[in-house]
Amino acid sequence: MLINLTQTFTRNKLEYILGLLISFTSLIIYSMTSCPTVNFIDSGELATVAYTLGIAHPTGYPLFTILGYVFSHLPLGLRIIQQLNFLAGIFCSIGLFFFFRLLVFLISIIFYNRNLRYSEIILIDKKLLIQIYLPAIFGTLTLGFSETFWSQAISVEVYSLHILLLSATLYLFLKAVYVSNELRMKGSYWLAFAYVLGLSFTNHMTTILIIPAVMYLFLYENGFNRKTFRKLFLIVVPFIFGISVYLFLPLRSSQGPLLNWGNPNDIEKLLWHLGGKVYRVWLFSSTESAVKQFNYF
To answer: Are 131 and 111 in contact (CB under 8 A)?
Structure first.
């Protein structure tokens, strides 16, 4: 009976349905376990920054601030902190949607053609369910309800949005690399990847940690030639559009918001803010301090 039902769906439809089901179910559980008040460390500051459209501690997190401002002013009938804690759950649940699709794509590459052609595996059968969808579902739920991930889904923090952006970035990158050249959408995936990568940097600088692997795979697949550098040049444009969200910091800072950490209203202060200069005293003030921070790391 199960196989007969699944045969009425195309592979893409089933992928969307399962991904949305995982995402929606996770959101319900996250909302039921959501923190009812201000949580540890940066929760209070980030909630204040989001609601008042202020400037957060380095590196500023402008994308998080803008999205948090919009969401915190929606008339949902919740206290501000509860509304922003709920937003964390939304970010994480959407992140799981992209992570599920990322796993499906990776496993599909393993079991089928490396240069994946969807036309070759459109229909769904028992083998496809067992080899691809069940492991992807299990892997996604394992991540979504792991202690660290779950903790980010119940309290306002920049990492919930970071989870979403990294999942989307990696999914779009692998689609851009491995989808057949015959498909027109390949170019669209490259543009979308570059734009989301830029946005990811405006939320958290640890995005840089995926760059070595991304560059290696990009050069491995495309070679070291003129065509490769032409492609890099083309995707720089949407990347700049994405990362331009950082312009929010000097523009908003110059308006004197309630919370204006570092006052990054000119180029010098903006670079200090992006570089985390105020934190360097903890790391480089002495050998003892450096050793202590390295041990934490």
So the answer is: yes
Residues found in the chain: 297
Q: Model pTM?
A: 0.88
Mean pLDDT over the full length of the chain: 87
| Six-digit token string for 276 | 């985390």
What does the H/E/C string look like for the chain?
CHHHHHCCCCHHHHHHHHHHHHHHHHHHHHHHCCCCCCCCCCHHHHHHHHHHCCECCCCCCHHHHHHHHHHHCCCCCCCHHHHHHHHHHHHHHHHHHHHHHHHHHHHHHHHCCCCCCHHHHCCCCHHHHHHHHHHHHHHHHHHHCCHHHHHHCCCCCHHHHHHHHHHHHHHHHHHHHHCCCCCCHHHHHHHHHHHHHHHHHHHCHHHHHHHHHHHHHHHHHHCCCHHHHHHHHHHHHHHHHHHHHHHHHHHHHCCCCCCECCCCCCHHHHHHHHCCHHHHHHHHCCHHHHHHHHHHC
State both tokens at 202.
């405006």
Query: How far is 187 from 71, CA to CA, in rounded Å?
Result: 32
Q: Which amino acid is at 190?
A: W
Q: Quote the pLDDT of residue 125.
A: 62
pLDDT above 60 for 151: yes
Nearest residue to 264 via CA among 282, 243, 247, 240: 247
Beta carbons of 173 and 190 less than 8 angstroms apart:
no
- Give the integer Cα–Cα distance in Å for 66 and 257: 13
Find the helix packing angle between 185-203 and 62-72, rounded to 10°.
90
Residue 23: how many other CB atoms lie within 10 Å: 21
Query: In DSSP terms, which residues pair with 260 in a beta bridge?
Result: 55
